[in-house]
């Protein structure tokens, strides 16, 4: 089974792009499934089910969805294999702009949209800078010039990535993206021993552990203070 | 190349490759006050300062910087101008039956129209060209450049695009004035004389639309016609892509003949899906699409060109009346 990790800021078009790409793969006889990671709730699983795509949903609750992702990815891979998928896609929300679910030797896709502003590529951390493919959506809403400026900013922060424009509504470009899933994603039997491309933030302060009170005496563990001068 | 770059001083690198500044900025590498040191020192220092926030090692950053510079050099190299012809080799209709032509070749300087009922596959054909299809799209078509199988770079490089696409929507979302916006676009295209180019685009855009606008106008407040005029002038003058695709462009409020003339004058291949007779007759040939396939290629005849003259007169009259209405004049 092949595995692809898809991440990107909320509402950038991840679900739309995955739906259209899996549609194209299905027309070529591939069987694909999705696992969706989110914090509190997600409606995406309904969308996938409606499209006839087997889906598993993981809600991280108080944990960072990306931490939750790594803690569960091996089980997910085994689920996908037992379902007999040719391809498993993970979608995760990328909420803090700092975490990235990308794993070494697993095809990594980041979805960003043209509406998010030209400084976004610089602001998004490893999830954009360390991905193999950057998909840019919502090109239908902006001008050719804005598309070019945005894409050139993406290329400047991740010169090695393949950059594709996909329209999440019409599916233009999704067939092309799906052929990259086919060609570039590697077969995975197990991820035990595989490594993240980039370390997750070293959280674990008292607030991670449920502290709600404010004040220095309640702050323990990995605490960082702003420079106020 | 990597060694050469790492041993440059920051100053001399930026002098030789000014576009490296975008890379440093994108990776939060602070160059100020460090211009005299080597690039290697700069990157190492930047990674060290970022501490646990550092995304990459200094070596990885250097590798990426090198890649960025390589891509930009490729972009600046003149090989975009070497696309002299585009050929389409047959695939299949939606029902799987083969297309009936053997090879359709379009040379630079030509304008081709694509016509056919809704859902027939016009946008798919434009998609095949943009992806330089090699039997790997739903149609199974192959696309050749200069009669040869093209380099894969055309597919993925955002800076090295084969195709500039003018789409139906030409909205702007950035919070910039027309001048700032054009400057930003020109800079991303690595243009030298930004000021001149911006003025040229402004002039041409105002020539295409009845309602003129100023460099200080915010782009988000442009009217539909003004936006289209600006985008067409911008694509004609700034885009280096040798092929321009136009998918059902809405054309109210612009002088369509002038617009197409402007796109053509830069010696590109123009393909447009349209049912507007003025645009369709300006093409030298029309591809007729049905059931997902190219059914026929029709040359524009002299009789048809005669009709174009008629339409052009009507068109100008409409534009004129519209502009007079706008100015608050009486029409008769
Ligand atoms: N030869 C083909 N084989 C398989 N599918 C095809 C073929 N040609 C087109 N299609 C598919 O048919 C659908 C409609 O095609 P397309 O969007 O290109 O039509 P269109 O002519 O642009 O329509 P409209 O005028 O409404 O814009 C698309 O999903 C496209 O991928
Ligand atoms: N206009 C336009 N809308 C899009 C495009 N891609 C996605 N959307 C819309 O953007 C919204 C968010 O998309 P979704 O896939 O749910 O984003 P996700 O949160 O990243 O999974 C939805 O309403 C989509 O229909 C696109 O290419 N163009
Ligand atoms: Mg989603
Ligand atoms: Mg169409
Ligand atoms: Zn996180
Ligand atoms: Zn914490």
Tags for this model:
heterodimer; A: 229 residues; alpha/beta; Rossmann fold; seven-stranded parallel sheet; 7 helices; 7 strands; 31% helix; globular; B: 332 residues; six-stranded mixed sheet; three-stranded antiparallel sheet; 13 helices; 9 strands; 14% strand; binds adenosine-5'-triphosphate; binds guanosine-5'-diphosphate; binds magnesium ion; binds zinc ion
Provide an overview of this structure:
The complex is a heterodimer of chains A (229) and B (332). Chain A has 229 residues and is of the alpha/beta class. Chain A has a single domain, classed as Rossmann fold, CATH 3.40.50.300. Chain A is 31% helix and 17% strand. Chain A is built from 7 helices and 7 strands. In chain A, strands 3-2-4-1-5-6-7 form a 7-stranded parallel beta sheet, with helices on both faces. In chain A, helix 2 links the parallel strand 2 (32-38) and strand 3. In chain A, helix 1 (14-27) packs across helix 7 (174-184). The longest helix of chain A is centred in the first third of the chain and has 18 residues, at 65-82. The mean pLDDT of chain A is 87. Chain B is an alpha/beta fold and 332 residues long. Chain B folds into 2 domains: 2-75, no CATH class; 79-326, P-loop containing nucleotide triphosphate hydrolases (Rossmann fold), CATH 3.40.50. Chain B has helices at 2-7, 10-16, 20-26, 39-50, 58-76, 122-130, 153-156, 178-188, 194-208, 224-238, 256-264, 277-282, 302-326, and strands spanning 85-89, 104-107, 111-115, 142-145, 163-166, 243-247, 269-273, 285-290, 293-299. In chain B, the strands form 2 sheets. Chain B has a 6-stranded mixed beta sheet with strand order 5-6-7-3-8-9, sandwiched between helices. Chain B has a 3-stranded antiparallel beta sheet with strand order 2-1-4, with no helix packed on it. In chain B, helix 8 packs across helix 9 (194-208) and helix 10 packs parallel to helix 11. Chain B is globular, with a radius of gyration of 24 Å. The chains are: A alpha/beta (229), B alpha/beta (332). The interface between A and B is large, with 43 and 50 residues. The structure holds adenosine-5'-triphosphate, guanosine-5'-diphosphate, magnesium ion (MG) (2 copies) and zinc ion (2 copies). One magnesium ion is lined by residues 122-123, 247 of chain B.
